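Project standup — Tuesday

K.O.: blocked on the structure for the chain from last sprint. Re-posting the sequence here as requested.
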Amino acid sequence: MSRADLAAWLDGLLEARRFDDYCPNGLQVEGEPDVRRIVTGVTASLALVRAAAARGAQAILVHHGWFWRGEDPRVVATKRERLATLLAHGIGLYAYHLPLDVHPELGNNVQLARRLGWPDGDTFGRDGLMRIAELPEPVDAPSLAARLRGALDREPLLVGELGRPIRRVAWCTGAAQDMLQQAIDAGADAFVSGEIAERTTHLAREAGVVYAAAGHHATERYGVQALGAAVAARFGIEVEFVDDPNPV
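H.V.: unblocked you, prediction finished:
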């Protein structure tokens, strides 16, 4: 398939143009015109670029791409090495940030819920970036931690009022710790995201809710895998997920 057709299909599926994002969504770096093999991953790290080159891929599809708003625009040091490696092997880079978080079937939020055995829930917040659902049965904080640990293969950090029963849970993958107040306002007993800040603990304690930091990378591994599977099914090309583990 052509790189242009791939970009157009992905842009349309994920409604990429409707988001005011922190980075460009879609085709970020042009590669070879014809795409026969794709490597997917969470972040376009140098390790992922090298893995794609070793596999003979013509494209990389990720959640976290390059060219973030506010970063140093110069192509120097590690940024130069990433880009030089990509260009030397004729690999294109496709990245979808917020569009991949919120997609109702393939998105990080929905995919995380399904991995945890939760209902898909209802969206709320700007661009529908958060979800909230009533659990079939109330759980306690240790049970929530065990569910996250088992599903994500990572030890979560839980803070706040750890003795309360959890009936309504809200979540947003990645670095959404500063959306905790919105989750509280929406009536959540617990909020799950990837990262945590020092201030998050105080707010959770004082509001009497549970906050769970389950890992930015860990919570965002599944949307890009679902998207890759959709590409493979639609176009009949080889798509492989490569994990570049990250403790954060």
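K.O.: great, moving the ticket to review. The chain has a mean pLDDT of 98. The chain has two domains: 3-97, 108-219.
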